[in-house]
Design goal:
By secondary structure, the chain is α/β, with parallel strands linked by helices. It contains seven helices and eight strands, in the order βαβαβββαβαβαβαα.
């Protein structure tokens, strides 16, 4: 039977991502797993690709005892930007996420203000708005249609991750993604490798911001 943390312990932060390269960046580029030193513990979960894999992995992690029922959850990794002018390395902080199904409800991210401010203070270009879900790679006309419907970016896991997190109990949730693919910088074009390296460096740099956000939520948790 899995051991559960003491109920009075500070709830660890759960960061969920799909890919191994994203997990590598979000663990500090190989400088260790659980982060934060003497501060709150951080658990980095690789879910696998797609909304079904994300929901399944998140549900299992929240039930097995490595985190608590109060643990904040951040969905992170890479995304495709939808707005003209977005570039690889830009950061998207979701005001809400919405799944890929027709008429899918939105999951609001109510505690994202400190994240936006902290990321901009680091000199990063930050976009905030609706982060839409998909079950496949989005290109061309479909990208434009999602933007016209109000989304600023799209990825395959964030909406499912936050939906599962909220379904398992009331907790702060956030989605912070780094653009690796944008309307003028699609992955199939020359320059993909350079854009990917830029996005990886930015994703690695946001880890301390997650720690700060987590600590701010503990004073007090509401």
């Amino acid at each position: 039977m899995p051991r559960r943390p003491p109920t009075d312990a500070e709830p660890p932060l759960l960061i969920a991502c799909a890919l191994g390269i994203e997990r590598f960046a979000l663990r500090g580029g190989g400088r260790g797993g659980a982060a934060g030193g003497a501060g709150p513990r951080v658990v980095t979960l690789r879910t696998g690709m797609g909304p079904q894999a994300a929901e399944r992995a998140l549900t299992e992690a929240l039930s097995e005892g490595s985190v608590t029922e109060r643990s904040p959850v951040v969905a992170s990794g890479f995304c495709a930007g939808l707005a003209p002018g977005m570039r690889p390395g830009d950061v998207v902080v979701a005001e809400a996420t919405r799944g890929h199904q027709a008429a899918a409800p939105e999951t609001p991210c109510r505690d994202n203000g400190p994240l936006v401010r902290a990321l901009r203070e680091r000199g990063l270009t930050v976009h905030s708005g609706l982060l839409c879900g998909s079950d496949h790679v989005v290109r061309g006309a479909e990208r434009a249609a999602l933007h016209a419907a109000g989304a600023v970016a799209v990825d395959m896991e964030s909406a499912a991750t936050l939906r599962a997190a909220q379904g398992a109990g009331r907790r702060p949730v956030a989605a912070v993604r780094v653009v690796v693919d944008a309307p003028e910088h699609e992955l199939v074009r020359i320059g993909t490798v350079r854009g990917g390296i830029s996005a990886f460096r930015v994703l690695r740099s946001v880890l301390p911001v997650f720690h700060e956000w987590h600590r701010s939520l503990l004073l007090p948790w509401r």
